[in-house]
Amino acid sequence: MPTAKRLPSGSWRCQVYSHSIIKTDKNGNIVYDKDGKPKKKRIYESFTSDDTSRRGKIEAEAMANDFILNRKGKAQKRLSEGNMTLLEAIEKYIDQHRTTLSPTTIKDYETIKKNGFQDIMLLKLKDFDTDILQDAVNRESKRLSRKRTRNPKPIATKRLRNEYGLIRPVIKKYRKDIDFEEISLPKVPPRIPDLLPAETIFRIIRGTDLELAVSLAMWLSFTSSEIRGLTKSKSVNGDYITIREVLVDGPNGPVRKAIGKNDYRNRRHRIPPYIKQLIENIDGDILVPFKSWELSHKWTQLLKKNGLPHMTFHDLRHVNASVMALLRIPDKYAQERGGWKSDKIMKKVYQQTFSDERERVDDVIDQYFEDKIQHECNTKK
């Protein structure tokens, strides 16, 4: 029960905890604790009675008790009126969906909460409108990426869209009146990686600690999380290898999951003899004992060492899809092997053409038109 205290003036004052707000420094930046969570400042309500007698003490305490009894209803009213900040609403959204979101998604949401759209994170939901949102999107598109310390560039368009993909549903939950269709986002430019031929990749990975991981990605079209989740005891059965678990990065470290991104990912492949021999040479149960960033870093360094253009580790799946297209593998089987939900995704995102093969096609087309031009010139003579 709250207890009133006498002030120097003789009046009585009783203080009761009301709510907490996000702490900021003198520059208006959010202050975080060692766990990466925003620090909060407790706010108290004061109830005062000018009656200096004992009756004034009872009156101040009665007002405080009345506040406590009605605080829950008032808090709900504050929420319904949009008095939450965007940051508070995002935290609530994450907590409400923690059991249904993947660890990787939660980790990304926590990163967005800390780095993205910082200029509107402390804005109350009731104060948002389309102009404020559009201006925030425009400013965020120019925010420099923290991944690069040298010659920093603005964050990627895809990253901006991922950030907006979190704040939009959060705001929309409380602000049904905002027309989100009016908000324009920059289009993601198509990314067409310059893929290396399979023979070049095999040449540089031979005898390295990446040989198995790269082969699994390029040959069997496994993703990084799928490769890291492979074990001899659960994944390998005779001449076949099956995706039974994936290893993803969560907010508190790696998390082993029993299912992949979707049902299409939990697939089974026959193990080629080349890969089977590599698996047999592995000591222990885990086939590829690398962290996600280690796979990416080692692959990038291997390319640099051999003077080859940059390709991401994930681009090895693009190599696989493009090889299947080159070999004219029917879409049904190519889609099944790659674990793609639809052949549209496979064709639009993953299938590219190799530089050498593209040049050969260009030569054929150029030769056709050059022959026609030459024929026309000879006719006029």
Automatic annotation (TrEMBL):
InterPro entries, per the entry: DNA_brk_join_enz, Integrase-like_cat_sf, Integrase_catalytic
Name recorded for this polypeptide: Integrase
Keyword Transmembrane helix: no
Gene Ontology biological process: DNA integration; DNA recombination
Organism: Candidatus Anaerostipes avistercoris
Stored Pfam families: Phage_integrase
Domain Tyr recombinase: 191-363
One GO molecular-function entry: DNA binding
Keyword Nucleotidyltransferase found: no
Signal peptide residues on this chain, from the entry's feature table: none
Source lineage: Bacteria, Bacillati, Bacillota, Clostridia, Lachnospirales
UniProt keyword terms in alphabetical order: DNA recombination
